[in-house]
Amino acid sequence: MAVSGLVVLKLKTRGSSENGNGVLSMNKERYGEKSRNKSTWSDIVGTCNKIEQLGVPLNNLMVRKICRGTQTSFWMDNLLNNLGPLKDCFPRLFALERYKNCLVADRWVLEEGEWQGKWAWTRQPSGRADGDLTKLVTELNGLTLDESQDDRWEWNLTASRKFTVASLCRAIHSRLNANDVSAPPFNWNSWVPRKVNVCAWRVALDRLPTMLNVCQRGINIPTSVCLFCGLYDEYRDHCLFLCPKVKVVWLKFWRWWKVCARFSLSDILKGNFNFTKDKWTTKLFHVVCLSLIWYVWKWRNKILHTSSDEEVSSAQQEDIFPAIQRLSLLWTSNRASKCRFSWCHWIRAPGEVAVL
Ligand SMILES: [Zn+2]
């Protein structure tokens, strides 16, 4: 599976000057399910289908970037994200096309300072076909060609827009983990507000709109890199747990609670801890974990929505740890009726807070 998948993706990312997205669909038709004998192409198509069935939309992740417009077929290739080839979207117009293999640059031209359609019909579209033509032009509106660059394939899951096996593996793993229903991925904690529980629940299901998740939904965003470090793609585990900037916060937390053990994100969400002396302390430790996750996501969104570079850099430098200590104390002291907290005690020995 891995080898054949790699072959098709490499082929697609390298870009076919003639076929564009049609590579896959053409070979699906030619060698796909109808083929009786196993062939390399049927393996490839089968692998792509399996990946799609997992919920990783391969065809949406691989986007044709139109620049010069001379290497992409106007009707056969998937020019517009998620729409599919124009011949399938507008069959009436395709039937009227005089040159079925025409290129984007043949049909979309700059005339009198405006990008517009330059059509070659066997007869002028009328009735419903005329309505289709209006829709087609609306879809193409905003498309401008760039003579200086070749048309190319872009991979949505990396900042460089180049395909990597690692990025696809991560996408598949995160989808597989999200589909695993054998154990509840998260335990609700009644000592934190509902919004914090909901956030952690979405983390457990990998439903937060991280850059990677947004890309996987086929939405075009300028960059997929982590907003904290700018070094790696932003996926759930990196953003909340593995990013060097976020790790510093977790390390402060471990030191504060004098914890030597290392937990996975999954243990943290479930509240699976084996170092605490009783379940009361376990629940308290879980409170801080969930507060930390919630606050890191809030911090990340603050960086995302800043308007200037200065604000981004100042938000990135922020030390969020004191706020996490403060909020987790506030929330627990308001909700856990059997205990009383003092700030000094909380900071010095959080695991030994008195139970009354
Ligand atoms: Zn990072």
From TrEMBL:
The keyword Transferase applies. One of its GO terms (molecular function) is RNA-directed DNA polymerase activity. Residues 163-250 form the Reverse transcriptase zinc-binding domain. It holds the Pfam family zf-RVT. Keywords: Nucleotidyltransferase, RNA-directed DNA polymerase, Transferase. This is RNA-directed DNA polymerase, eukaryota, Reverse transcriptase zinc-binding domain protein.
